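Appendix B, record 7
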Amino acid sequence: MKIRGQNGYRRAPAIILAAASLTAFGLGGAQAACPTVADAQGLTGQWPEQVEIEDATAKGVKLTYTQNPVFDKDVEAGKLPRVDQRLPEQPLIVLPYEACGVYGGTLNGLARAPESGTSDILSWRQVGLVRISDDLKTIVPNVARSWKWADDYKSITFELRKGHKWSDGQPFTAEDVVFFFEDIVKNKDMSPDTTVEWGVNPTAEAIDETHVKIGFDEPFPGLLSYLATSGSYFTTFAPKHHFAQYLPKYNEKADSDAKAAGFENWVKAFDSYYDKWKDAETLTAHALTVPTLESHIIEIAPDTQHRVFKANPYYFKVDSSGQQLPYIDHHYERFLNLDLQLLSVMNGEADYKAQGLDLTQYPTLKDKEASGKYTVRMAAGSIGPAMAFNITHNDQKLRSVYSDLRFRQAISHAINRTEINDVIYFGLGKPSQALPAQVPFATEADANYMTDFDVAKANALLDEMGMKKGADGMRTYPDGSPFTILWEYSSQMASAEFVKLVSDHLKAVGLKVNSKELTSAATRENAKAETSDINMEWDVPYEPTLVADITLYTPYYSEISPLFGVKWKQWSISNGASGEEPPAWAKRMFEIAKEWKTVVPGSDRYMELGRELVKLNLENMTIVGTIGELPKPIIVSNRLHNVPTQLGTAHFNFGYSYAFRGDQWYIKE
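Structure tokens (predicted):
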């Protein structure tokens, strides 16, 4: 895990420019000599694929800023300032992958519903204080120019960009970061549990307009990893000049205003307008009034059919020839079910698609590559479906079965992973238990733990539990009553083919399974209510995301769709005042989680805790894994350029395309 430049605001970068390239800078667009990732022309510095403006100008490079022509009329009419007045005094210079792009066009994307499968498209425009680079390891500046850790990792000071502006032209300053922490995160009326993910007591202090100090009462060395990966979907800042009007602290009429607008109180109103999940803020017409720092902003009132975004005229990045990013005028997001999405992709109606595609669709997608005018690229490092039986099911009779370790071990032995790999994944994966991916403390033996297909062993474990087979060959509860597993699943997490195949494996050892496909929203509601038998929405943590958020590997494993242990987590958070006391092994996981946040990644203690957590999860068979190390298909339109040829892991916890810099993609037919 590489977190570069964390011990000071700036380090003197080494930038060497070829003399021949100096005269070319300052020319706009295609006329300019354009340093790129493919040919940097000597424009290299402290950070991969990007350079701070003063580092370039110190070497004699002078950029003349140019803008997207879509803004020309508004500038001429006086509705917008000139581009050099809209950009920060310290814009971030981006080296495009292949070429400095051309302006224009609409980037077409597909999602399932306004809050289902939209992360992919959000990743095209999202921004945060920091960003993970496309090596999926190095954390680099983004909205923040630099950072400085305290020696004890209990505080970090970020340097922001001087003159940075929100999309409405208002200044973005350290006060907007303070507002997020002090007025939103720590506001007990609105978010009583939000502080859990940040530490017991986060604090934020504006040192001046461009420096903000964030502190915690315990060391939090994984903060940057969190902000750059799984935390990248929401921002650690909020436009104070917009949202303060809804808080009683700043507006004594906030509650009466909320009631006049039809809300129960100001809390309900604020919750309707603001969401830490940035995509959720664009669900209503109110989004048209909310300033953002993202590359694109909502253009028309959204509905259940589509969303349209337009380029942000105040976006803070330029390419290496001085063109303000983004190149692409609009993002167009349509909401379609899975079958229609696939058809739309094959018809050439999507320019980029990663989320929701899996290896089972590869032959079909590849067959339509030419007619659909796209290329199928295979990202490495995906993981196959995993399943968790609900140990804390609300139905006490089901809980008595699912919480019996022998049952979960029997399930693992009953699954024929080789068949799953061959039938569904063309033999391209590798049978594996459920583990964090690409971590140094998980071994090959861990991956193989109880993955052997052994029907006799599975039957013996179920017999030992007293789950006898009836005349129909199906097993009963230990008391002799009929037993059935209800497998409610979302196609976002598993294909119907996978569910059918595993159900057949379980039936072969006498376990009756009824399966039913639901929406992601429904499976999440059931998971939170602890009424589902099997939960599958576990985003496999990779090392950067595990460093950032150990709760991905401890009960309840997922905030939006818990696998099990909702009341255990309540007990842990409340120090036993509420919820349900967990078993000793789960208590130990909560203890590890608290210490984990304080240890430095890669240290001896980090390795010790990681190995112990792997052991606890395996020995208690908390999550049953199936297949690991799968390639993942990604669709890239032939008209879309500056998308890297080699794409790393395309995964929710890396922000999908966030690392691949959608703001420098461009469209050219």
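Remarks on this record: Residues 335-381+632-667 form a domain with the D-Maltodextrin-Binding Protein; domain 2 fold (CATH 3.40.190.10). The first helix runs from residue 19 to 22.
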